[in-house]
Amino acid sequence: MSSIVSVIQARTGSSRLPGKVLLDLVGQPLLLRMVERVQAAQRAGTIVVATTVEPSDDAIEALCLQHGLRCYRGSVNDLLDRHYQAGLLWNADAVAKIPSDCPLIDPAVIDRVFEYFLQNNFDYVSNLHPATYPDGNDVEIMKMSALETAWKEAQRPFEREHTTPFLWENPDRFSVGNVRWETGLDYSMTHRWTIDYPEDYAFIRAVYEELYPKNPRFGLKDILDLTERRPDIFALNSQYAGVNWYRHHLHELKTITADQTRHV
Question: Which pLDDT value is given to residue 15?
């Protein structure tokens, strides 16, 4: 596998927290901090910020141009197409999906998932099926050929919006691998390190303010140690632990059960 394109999907039009990718984290927009995390992974390959053609996302393109980052602009709701087109443009053999709402992602986790993919012959590998890492360490990588099949055949809106369900929902057609947290623990429903609500921003900002000045490369263990020492920080967004997009599609998803999501 010679060419990995890591796609960071980003937009400003979040309904619950508009402009979240441009919010400040210790002096820079959240999106730049997110890119820093992915750049720190040794296996990240070509990194592309994939945003939309909406005028509101001109700010994302401008930020990318200012900082020398690759940027692709495409469909607002069809993220499957956005990832596929980015893969085509940058001649990918494999495309990774890393959402921009994970600015606490550990680069070592990215590398672990990518290494597992590269050492085996799976069509698709993630650390999400089932998830075990704290929510916000989401890594998915797939062969370009598998992504192309999904791009051609996926019809349901949630399959287009969330990019990869057509692959992991059809394990009879695609070889699917998963990386579990090596500790044997499962914090996926109890520890929320992603951003979708103002409380999430308060949590992530507090983590950055505590850890980034001393160690810009802080990792998963550093965050866990901090939240054990500072239960007040852990509590900032704990009310949303386990809340994810699955809750809206349980009647359509074949491989997801009700215990893998929680309603607000």
Answer: 83
Whether residue 92 lies inside any domain: the answer is yes
CB of 8 closer than 8 Å to CB of 38: yes
CA-to-CA separations, 52 to 78, 195, 218, in angstroms, rounded: 10, 19, 30
| pLDDT bracket for residue 14 (50, 70, 90) | confident
Where in the sequence is the domain holding 130, given as residue range(s)?
4-188+240-259
246 with 189: CB under 8 angstroms?
no
CA distance 61 to 65: 6
| Strand 24-25 versus strand 28-29 pairing type | antiparallel
Q: Which residues pair with 137 in a beta bridge?
A: none
Q: What residue has token string 């402009």?
A: 19
Does residue 136 fall inside a structural domain? yes
Q: What is the DSSP string of 70-135?
A: EEEEE-SS-HHHHHHHHHHHTT-SEEEEEETT-TT--HHHHHHHHHHHHHS--SEEESBTTB-SPB
3-state secondary structure of 215: coil
- Work out how many domains the chain is built from and give that number: 1
pTM here is: 0.97
